[in-house]
Design brief:
rod-shaped, 6% helix, 1 helix
Length: 214
């Protein structure tokens, strides 16, 4: 059973990382500087009728979040493309608008390209930050049957061997079964109970236990 709950927790708690390559080449395949999504681009110069390309590698489905602002009256067009070349987002920022926020839903992980086109006849400067929010995982339940008076020990671990820290264990019906701070479930009476494991940073996973009479 320990292996089962470990798999559930791993699915709920694997963190996503995204890296971005930055460049101003005409080809999306010729990109230069790599930065973390925790960084921000400041005062990036973009020439008249010029395009900048960015590449981000996403591990899983989720939302690509972009905050963009410019200094002048240029007209900016945005495009986001999958690694296969499919356009997944298209938008623009007019000459009288200075800032915008983009939320682009990604159905799967992979390589994605961001293009920024200055269609104005004058150069401009812009700031941009790029973040990623992982998709919410559906609740997953594994049901285990336990006889009244019996015990079951649960545990949790990350799939990438990252340390979990303190885990809080909870029982939805303590009259049916209780769970200790170390994850030991003790069956008390017939019924169905949900045992939840919660980490300090708010991730959780659940296992359902059915208690039966002897």
């Amino acid at each position: 059973m320990k292996r089962t709950i470990s798999i559930i927790l791993a699915m709920a708690m694997v963190l996503s990382m995204a890296t971005i390559s930055v460049g101003a080449n005409e080809s999306m395949d010729k990109l230069a500087k790599r930065i973390s999504t925790l960084d921000a681009l400041q005062n990036v110069e973009i020439g008249a009728h010029s395009t900048h390309y960015y590449r981000t590698n996403i591990r899983e489905a989720g939302t690509l979040n972009i905050e963009f602002s410019k200094q002048s009256t240029s007209s900016i067009s945005f495009g986001i493309y999958s690694g296969e070349g499919d356009k997944v987002y298209e938008g623009s920022l007019g000459s009288f608008s200075q800032a915008t926020k983009i939320e682009c839903e990604l159905s799967k992980g992979g390589t994605y390209y961001i293009s920024i086109l200055n269609s104005y006849h004058l150069e401009d400067k812009y700031n941009m930050t790029v973040g990623f929010t992982r998709a919410t995982q559906p609740e997953l339940f594994i049901t285990h049957t336990l006889r009244r008076g019996g015990e079951l020990r649960l545990g949790a671990e990350m799939s990438n061997n990252e340390k979990l820290g303190t885990i809080t264990w909870r029982s939805s019906r303590t009259s049916v079964a209780t769970v200790s701070n170390s994850g030991v479930v003790r069956a008390r009476s017939a019924g169905i109970v949900t045992i939840t494991a919660v980490t300090l940073n708010g991730y959780s996973a659940k296992v359902r236990v059915r208690v039966v009479d002897r």
